[in-house]
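This part of the workshop introduces the protein records we will be handling. A learned vocabulary of local backbone shapes supplies the integers on the structure line. Getting from the letters to the tokens is the skill we practise here. As an example, a complete record with its sequence and its structure tokens follows.
=====
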Amino acid sequence: MCLAGVGAALLAWFLLAPVPAGDRAAQQAGTDIDQWGIVSPRALSPTRLARYQVAPGPDGPVRFVETRSARAITLELESIDPARMPPSLLDFRLRGTGDPAYREPVAPVRAGLDRQVVGFDSARRPLPGARLHLLFPHPLEPDQVYHLAIADRFFGGGHRSGPLNVELRYRPERISGSIQVNQVGFEPAARKIAFVGNWLGTAGALPIDATGFAVIDLDGGAVVHEGGLDRRAMADPWSGNDVYQADFSTLTRPGRYQVRVAGLGVSEPFRIAARIHEPIYRRVMRLFYHSRNGTPVLAPFADPGYERPDGGVPAALDGQLHASVADSALGCAEADCRSHPVAGGWFDAGDYGQYVPNAAPVWYWVGAAFDLAPGRFMDGDLGIPESGNGIPDLLDELEWGMGWMLSMQDDGDGGVYFRITSRSWDDMLPHQLTQPRLIAEKTTHASASFAAAAAIHARLIEPYRPSRARQALAAAQRAWEFLDSHPQWPAEGERYRNPPGIHAGEYAESSADDNRLWAAAELYRATGEPRYRVAYERLAPRVHIDPTANVSYGQLAMAAFWAWTMAADRPGGDPDVDPALARKARDAVIAAGNWRIAKANEHPFRAPMHQFVGFTGWGSFAESTRATVPLLQAYRLTAEPRFLDWAWETPNIQLGANPQSLCYITGVGARSPRWPLSKLSRFDSQAAPLNGIPVIGPHYALHAISPQMIAVNAAYLPPNKPRMAEPRTAMDFADAYPALRRYTDSDYLPPMSEPTVADYAQVGVAYGLLRAPGLGAEIQEHAKRASTRTPD
């Protein structure tokens, strides 16, 4: 229904029109607007269409025409024949009677094609988007009318009596997809960078003829900054572009601006202003309120139109113990092993399942943010029912989540059930469910992660609700005692698997050592008891130190190292703490910051991600703010400004400075996804999804587990895979479809479109920390106070 993240960014140039309410998945087919997941230029008002370097094509096989530059033209086609690759240059002639260079028809010097799936119809069949790219030898003159003649044989012949004629113009005052910038904007003191470049499919990178750029003040039209374009990569295999960087960091005056590059056009507008990220923090973190189970979601707290007055899953259905629980290795210690009431919490992701291992990192991300700059999170800043109670809203939201976490604990022995879900994926709003939701087996992973999260909760809520803190800490300690007195299950090296007849997230991981290590570190930090120190020091040598890992349900070692660093640094600390292990934990945190800077320096789009192209996925690129907290943690420990400088830069990719010029948060920026995998959004009455959903973004190779994923992989042209069997370097991927363009906006593609509550937390707290200037001083001042505070 919207910006179907196409590889060459043609389809991503259109704004959105409403579609009928109801099941949004069924709206992906029908009209030009819905079928292609975009809004056709024919459907745009003249005022809105006039903003972009795009125009409708003539009736027939050409849908849209885009001027990528003064020399490059891209046409979106109904279809292409791969057998016609490469296109013959003789099939195209461009003529413009008002331009001496084109008074006689001129052939292109390069022609290329590309294709990818841009959406699915109502029968879930793929809709491929095909593009033809033509590069001409001379620049087009602004606003002149040109006519492109395309020989009928290019389309296979037999369609018409003569060539197809396409009228086009180059308008330099319009927005160009060849200039990519953060579409929200920048804090005045932050580094400010835009990227310049584009891709012409099999014809290669778009040549950038300009050597400089200008920044235009939109309120007065004056040029307020000029600079040179710095080349970062040629024929970049990540994007297909020749990538150039436009650095205008010295521009600090608040205002509204655009970047202009001669021969291309202008960028999307952006702002320079203090507190530029504050609205994004609010949008992302309010997803927790909208995802609450067990309560009506009502005005004035809900976003208008997104209320759920019928609430969540009916209480009578939450929950029933699955038959496998009694027979599992960790069993059931309750008096009634058939039902177990569960209440509250948040729906984990696109569906309505609730999973302890994936919810637990929410407490890590929030706890880390409070370790850095707790003053940035205030009572009343999220506009939820608890606002105004004297407790920071973010902690109120954790309170709602902890109520559910506590209800997942077996009262008999302290072990923790892994999840509560329906038997299969639900295709309705949660209050419409009719079958009991099933509680899965207790696991070591869930019990350990619960212990860590509950210990963090006790520490955070203690100043406001001491009785709740005592309850949470007691539950954490009971879970630890369960771990100490029961065998590990699944066994080390084995992964959890669903029992027969259950289709739900497995969140399978093969080791529980990192879960246990995190629990030991957090419990030691919360209590100072020697038994947790002994446990940590016993486990730590068994846990691999990987500072490149993002904290998640399956990667918890870095969470443990942060907790241990904070515990070891506290005043009046335990003299028996092994200084070597404390140093290793601290060094790992700093190494995590250093690694992200090193990778960002290497990457053409300054992305703090692994350099192997094939690893692109699960938010590694689009969720660039997952690097924010690790960078700020390193800054807290070292006070080195470079960590802070890079933290301020982390939003840029997520907010539009990427090859698709797409903001990967719904409702944010000029263009953002409209088809995240969210059942709440699919079945509500609104055409647009909830604001603030941080979609996962480009994914290099989807698993072949559904017809839709198989179709997406098969449609790429250039092909899905490189020619060599085992590509190693980035250049080995150069003949395959570029990784950073492999995003299709569709809720049928979970690896591209389904974030979880853990994603909400890590992205949301990043914008919360970056929500106002003065962050560096605030972090160091808080660190100083923490180091001199009298211990309990």
The radius of gyration is 27 Å. Residues 1-44 have pLDDT under 50 and may be disordered. The first helix runs from residue 32 to 35. The CA atoms of residues 360 and 581 lie 24 Å apart.
